[in-house]
Amino acid sequence: MERTLDSTLESVDSAEELASELAGRAGFDDEDLLKIGMAVRESMVNAVVHGNRYNAHKKVRLAVSGGERRLTVKIADEGEGFDIEHLPDPLAPDNLLRSSGRGIFLIRSFMDEFQIRRLEGGGVELTLVKYQAGK
Amino acid sequence: MSVKLSTRQVGDVSVIDVTGRITLGEGSSALRDSLRELVGNNQKKILLNLGDVSYIDSSGIGELVSGFTTVTNAGGQLKLLNLSKRVKDLLQITKLYTVFDVHDDEAAAVRSFA
Fold first, then answer.
1. Residue ranges of chain A whose CB lies within 8 Å of a chain B CB
2. Contact A103 B58 (CB under 8 A)
3. What ipTM, to 2 d.p.?
4. How far apart are CA B60 and CA A109, in angstroms?
5. What is the pLDDT along chain A (135 residues), one digit of tens a residue?
6. How far apart are the first and last CA of chain A?
């Protein structure tokens, strides 16, 4: 399943609902559905807010696919990218009381695999993978 | 519905009852505005009742942290009440659970304010 979404908060909600629905149909349990939904939400916020900066001319590409007891979600923006190598650690004492910066950390916490890739031509793609229990 | 907030007084403690989702956008900004209004009105003892919060994302967590900082810097106290397992787990993962004073009983929470 692939969708091209506008850079809006409505798209964040839509993507979260869609991914949760597909994961539910694939047989993920409630705990994993919650984690998948949250990870997709955080990824979409990253794309819409930090990547595309709500730019109406920039889109977010969402792709959800399933395999052998796994779900793969790819979210790509058309922004200018960010310093993937030097993301601040939200758990560091100096960062603990920052009001932002936890999104990527939460995605890593909730998913089994997570990759960030700069796209040729601009933008960043996040790949999230979750395996069903008992894999 | 994203979020609904209502404020009541228990003695000199302002209790904000939060219902719904604290997420980026309407949810997080409503919480921010509510806390700023109380601090602006010199209300320095604030208890956030999160018992009916069904969902919180990193932006919502950010607003909790921001609110804590704002209230503390104003010489006040912000405490949390009735965390669901989901919210508690998130605060633990982000190492914020020990930053906040968390309670599961309102009367005890109210008494705990200095």
1. 9, 12, 34, 38, 41-42, 45, 49, 90-91, 96-100, 102-103, 105-106, 109
2. yes
3. 0.88
4. 17
5. 999 999 999 999 999 999 999 999 999 999 999 999 999 999 999 999 999 999 999 999 999 999 779 999 999 999 887 777 778 899 999 999 988 889 999 999 999 999 999 998 889 999 999 999 864
6. 23
Q: How many CB pairs under 8 A join A and B?
A: 45
Number of domains in chain B: 1
CATH superfamily of A2-131: Histidine kinase-like ATPase, C-terminal domain (3.30.565.10)
Which residues in chain A have their CB less than 8 angstroms from residue B24's CB?
Answer: 9, 12, 45, 49
Q: In the structure encoding, which two tokens stand for residue A124, read together?
A: 């960043």
CA atoms of A103 and B23, how far apart (whole Å): 12
Would you state the structure tokens that stand for residue A61, as one six-digit string? 């590409």
